[in-house]
Amino acid sequence: MRRRTLLLGSLGLTALSLPALAKTPELTADVVIVGSGGAGLMAAYGALEAGAKKVVVLEKAPMAGGRTAYSSGFLSAVSPKRQNPGVTDSVERMVRDMLEEGDYAADARLVETLARDSESVLDLFEALGLRWRPPVALCGGFFPRNFSPYPMRSGYEYVRALLDALEKEGDRFRILFETRAERLLAEDGRIAGIAAQGPSGPLTVRAKAVVLATGGFASNAERLARCLGTDPHRHPRIVSTPDPVDTGDGLDLAEAVGADAVGLEHVLAIPYMGGKIQWAGASDLYLDREGRRFIAEDASWRTLRNAVERLPDAQFWVVTDSQSFKGDSAEMKILEGRVRVAENLEALAKGLDVPLETLRETLARYNAFVREGIDRDFGKRSLLLTVEEPPFYYGEESLGVLVTLGGLAIDTEGRVLDKRGLPIPGLYAAGETTGGVHGASALGGTTLTEIFVFGQRAGREAARVSLSPPPPSSSRLLPRYEAAAFQALLRLPRLFQNPPFVVILSDAPRRRFGKRGHPKSSKTTPSTTRHRRTKSGERIGRPTDRAGEPLLPCGSDH
After folding, report:
1. Which of 69, 142, 149, 398 pairs as cysteine with 65 (C-beta 3.0–4.6 A)?
2. Alpha-helical segments (H) within 148-219
């Protein structure tokens, strides 16, 4: 009830009055952000921190927080000063762990950025008033670097802290609820704002920088079907999240202006919608239909998913007892019947529909491992509590899509990249809207770290660019006629695979383009251009800008 009151209470503090919208169908800002979950709010904080004078947030829901507000609250970070005594951690180790868990399909630069900046996220929230529990090895992770707020552990603590900080900015920060972004605006070759639909009708927010923080697409059955090769709403082995917010709005907006998307096939499917009432997994038991353990309960998400999919019906039992800490959802799950209570071992065996002796043997063996401190069957690391004190809590579990790991391609500053790998001027993204950070799977707690690290970086960079003077014609932003010329070249795929020409942008006077993209010059022909070399003998093989950076992939690299 407290969470709900706080969440709804934030509306009156941050919402723009609706009558004002009717009189002002067009707003201006330094930075406009789409989405008010953890990534969006952190982007707003980062933009204001970097000097933005006006930040506007568009939120299609009637309240702030997004999925962050309902997350477990665990945040993975390398923090030697907060680490448990005798435990040594490092940025390098976290990078290695994340890359390994993601099957080396992640962008190592993004992973390294996340790990390096993770401690600064803890520092930031600590400055905003949060305190941290000692780190634990989260279920889905295997190293004790997962922090959660104290005394509460819900993700809403992050939302509350950010909203409190943003509300102190007064008119510099505004959030518009029930306002859906419909289209990115572009002017002079860069993003220039958002066209949206608000409660009072169409609305335009003009800004030099836009940050997309709309979450993933776990509730978009059509897109999930394309990415997974099946419809998760009908698939008997993987069900989709019930959260209606994650429809992939940011992907749609950015792809419409030429943005690239990466890793869309990577989806984090874990058991969490049924009988599971612990996130840390310290005293959970996962039992198959015969009443036997089949995996270490604190295994990585990827390992767990593979093991569950090998079960005959891709379902299993989750069992714990009266000693364990119950998550925030336990009471609701009990009321809904997803978690049931057994007063003794006999009742538990009956509820699980397994032989009593088999269940008794399973529990006795596990409890012996706990007392010994070694799981000789599966290597569980978090052997903290036995499971032997009634009443027992149990329920069925199956895989559910928790988050989508693919999304918009970005660089380390949160700039959205086009299909050539170049930043789209004025467009940024952070959080689950993006891809490349995790690869094929994610370690527990890293998805929350991701939204804060890249939310802040995207907000800062967006503010910096919005406050900077317009770039001169000699910058990497191509003049429109040159951009048009290169677009024309891209429409010649057969020629461009083995181009008989190169185009060089330099400080020399601009040359007009002749037929088939060749510069008009009596001294330069397609045949001589093909073999053109610098004075040092270096062969020129691709178009470059003034800084020597490649503009388009070509030749054998295409």
Report:
1. 69
2. 156-167
